[in-house]
Amino acid sequence: MSIINRIEVLGHSSATEGLASFIDTAIIHHLSEEIIEQTIALRKIIKIKLPDAIIAATAITHGHRLITRNVRDFKNIAGLEVIDPYQI
């Protein structure tokens, strides 16, 4: 999980203790040089918001799938598998 995901999820007033406990069990990937370089590369080739670029770059760098309801903003990123949790 990207550090951005943690901030976004826990930053909502509706975040529950259960959700916080779940996040605490996740591996949080902080910004490494590799993630930063991947983020820069993504922003050079597609129009993407910085937080979304960091999230995508984190998933690509670590070989993870991205599970998001916001499929639209990520669907055209090469090398990124995007999963809509409502379609599982």
Automatic annotation (TrEMBL):
Domain PIN as annotated: residue spans: 31-79
A family per Pfam: PIN
The name this protein goes by in its record: PIN domain-containing protein
Organism for this UniProt entry: Mucilaginibacter psychrotolerans
Lineage of the species this protein comes from: Bacteria, Pseudomonadati, Bacteroidota, Sphingobacteriia, Sphingobacteriales
